[in-house]
Amino acid sequence: MKEIVLAGGCFWGIEAYLSRIPGAKETKVGYANGHAENPTYEEVCTSETGHTEACYVAFDEKIIDLESLLNDFWKVIDPTTRNRQGPDIGSQYRTGIYYIKEADLEVILKTKEQQQKRYARPIVTEIEPLTCFYPAEEYHQKYLEKNPRGYCHIDLNSL
Fold first, then answer.
1. Hey, how many other C-beta atoms are within 10 angstroms of the C-beta on 130?
2. Most buried of the four, 22, 44, 80, 83, by CB within 10 Å?
3. Quick one: CA dihedral 63, 66, 68, 73, positive or negative?
């Protein structure tokens, strides 16, 4: 299994989208790359913890490789908008690719370079090593499965 953490706005939609990709074996929403230890959702929403809402994904490389997974991710975010996705505004909604293995950086940068050709404005998606990931509260896990009419800024039929 390979692992990566992706942030693309509200984590409910990113998690629901990533969990539908063939080869994604596990997804978990949480708070990534901030400075507060074990933050709550309410704390992250203040934009004072430095965390972004993110989704951890473990995937089977025999079914989907990292490049293909990232290309699917790039499809559902606006990588040129800082601290916003859809109607969600705030630093907790910034986009990011947080890698666990340094060896993944080459593939990540390759996909970013390919994506940049599609945009006139520069891509502002963070690409950084994962420094921390705190799982979100249980009610956020698989939120859109539990609440099928819940809010989502992503077209979940876009796979």
1. 18
2. 44
3. positive
Residues identified as active-site: 10
Main-chain phi, psi angles of 44, to 5 degrees: -65, -35
Is the confidence at residue 31, as pLDDT, over 80? yes
Q: Would you kindly state where each structural domain of the chain is located, as residue ranges? A: 2-146
Which residues are CB-neighbours of 131 under 8 A, at least 6 positions away? Answer: 32, 33, 98
- What is the tens place of the pLDDT at every residue in 118-150? 999 999 999 999 999 999 999 999 999 999 888
Rounded CA separation 154/69 (Å): 16
CATH placement of domain 2-146: 3.30.1060.10
Report the alpha-carbon distance of residue 101 to residue 119 in Å, rounded: 28
Q: At what angle do helices 105-116 and 66-75 cross, to 10 degrees?
A: 40
pTM > 0.85: yes or no:
yes
pLDDT exceeds cutoff 80 at 158: no
- The yes-or-no verdict on residue 157 having pLDDT over 90 is no
The mean pLDDT of 92-112, rounded to a whole number, is 98
**102 residue type, one letter:** E
Q: Which two tokens stand for residue 120?
A: 């006139």
